[in-house]
Amino acid sequence: MTKTLTIDGVTIPFEDGQTIIQAATAAGIYIPHLCHNPEFTPHGSCKLCTVKVNGRNCSACTFPAMDGQAVINNAKDLNADRQKITQMLFVEGNHFCPSCEKTGNCQLQAVAYHLNMLDDHFPLFYPHRELDASHEEILIDHNRCIFCTLCVRASHEQDGKDVFAISGRGINKHLIVNSETGLLKDTDMSASDKAAHICPTGAILIKHTAYQVPIGKRIYDHQQIDQVTLNSESEHDK
Amino acid sequence: MTNKIRVATTSLAGCFGCHMSFLDIDERILELAEVVVFDRSPITDIEHCSADCDIGLIEGGVCNSENVHTLREFRKNCKILVAVGACAINGGLPAMRNFIPLEDCLNEAYINGIGVENAQIPSDPELPLLLDKVRPIHEVVKVDYFLPGCPPSADVFWKFLTDLIAGKEPSLPYNLVHYD
Fold first, then answer.
1. Which residues of chain B lie closer than 8 angstroms to A99, CB-CB?
2. Crossing angle of helices A76-92/A107-114, nearest 10°?
3. What is the pTM of this model?
4. Given A91, A96, A215, which is nearest B96 (Cβ)?
5. What pLDDT is stored for residue B2 in this prediction?
6. Within a 10 A sphere around the Cβ of B166, how many other Cβ atoms?
7. Cα(B48)–Cα(B72) distance, rounded to whole angstroms?
8. Is the CB of B20 inside 8 Å of chain A's CB atoms?
9. If one looks up domain A3-81+229-237 in CATH, what number appears?
10. Minimum CA–CA partner of B88 in chain A
């Protein structure tokens, strides 16, 4: 007998060891997320994938799928919470889309579009954050970091380099670089590393490539993030 | 007096790009003019809002004392106040000065800048005082609706205004929501 759970009333199968988000992706159901990537160990920090499991809020990227679970995903209150979380991500950093090289290819922006976020709601922090342009091929703009740790995980798990870590807590949380100077140029990071291509926002960019595709012709200018994500992530899970 | 819907518009710390985009509704402006009359606006050159404006469209963020007065005048006189464009919503490009002390900005522009002659920081009492930071308008007054984009496309203006004029709750479909 195949084990099953339901998401928004739809019965889907799953295999032992799968998380809810993995089962959902395999069944073609999109659960919004930013810090989750099927290639790396789940982190459960962005909370966008919060779903209701048997009446309780859980992160779908870390919570194991279990037989008979009743999961609520695409509900008005959950999407309202997700929009508020996204607005908080926007106001606690400096996300000026019109002047960002990543615009149109940015997952943070695309999730916000998906949630029909039209404003920031909260007062803006305008925190003072640095730019690290020291590396020949890679730029770090800390203004746009949302602490998803994807670069940390990619560098550790795939590149085997441990270039990045998160330091500090709460409002003092920040991305740090593993070199004596704290600068990226003094690490062994290269533009072909996975960590250089994993950032969901414009915080880690490959130099000299920014406007090769013009604004208006980029990924999320024409496709919604749910379809883009399901296509890429279900491919990976196969 | 007409029964037309009164629309007031202004640009605070903005570039008038949102106004230009609004005018990109092209010939649809004739259709709009059947039901709408413009009050205070760069289009009419009327200096102050009438007390009975229906819709106020605000482009740009708040960067100086005059912006604050103008924004409050709009809020007081407009039943519905709308933040138009990235700068009104999050400060936008002008807010990128928020990371540089105001004194440094003024020195760079008026004292140490390349090609500056007769260097002095403008201090005519007629000039509005700059705020230490550029702020989005929702931090100063209550805002009823937001039209994102840099600028919002003509179709965003059209969809929003026609929804509102038809008595519907305005909404923007996915393809009209852009932050760039």
1. 93, 96
2. 140
3. 0.96
4. A96
5. 64
6. 9
7. 12
8. no
9. 3.10.20.740
10. A119
**A86 touching B, CB under 8 A?**
no
Per-residue pLDDT tens digits for A97-110: 999 999 999 999 99
Residue A52 burial (C-beta neighbours within 10 Å; 0-12, 13-18, 19+): middle
Please answer yes or no on whether A119 and B93 come within 8 Å at the CB atom. no
B156/B86 Cα distance (integer angstroms): 13
Chain B residues inside the 8 Å CB shell of A97: 86, 150, 179-180
Q: CA–CA distance from A165 to each of A143, A168, A193, B50, B93 (Å)? A: 16, 10, 16, 57, 30
* Domain chopping of chain B, boundaries: 5-94+133-176
Structural domain boundaries in chain A: 3-81+229-237, 98-221
**B139 to A97: CB separation less than 8 angstroms, yes or no:** no
Look-up of token digits 């640009």: B11
Q: Where are the alpha helices (DSSP H) in chain B?
A: 17-23, 28-35, 65-77, 85-90, 102-106, 154-165
Q: Is the minimum CB–CB distance between B88 and chain A shorter than 8 Å?
A: no
Quote ipTM for the complex.
0.94
Domain A98-221 architecture: 2-Layer Sandwich (3.30)
B80-105 residue pLDDT tens: 999 999 999 999 999 999 999 999 99
- Identity at A145, one-letter amino acid code: C
The two structure tokens encoding residue B4: 């037309």
The CATH number of B5-94+133-176 is 3.40.50.700
Q: What is the DSSP string of A56-73?
A: EEEETTTSBP-TT-EEE-
A118: how many CB neighbours lie within 10 A of its CB? Answer: 21
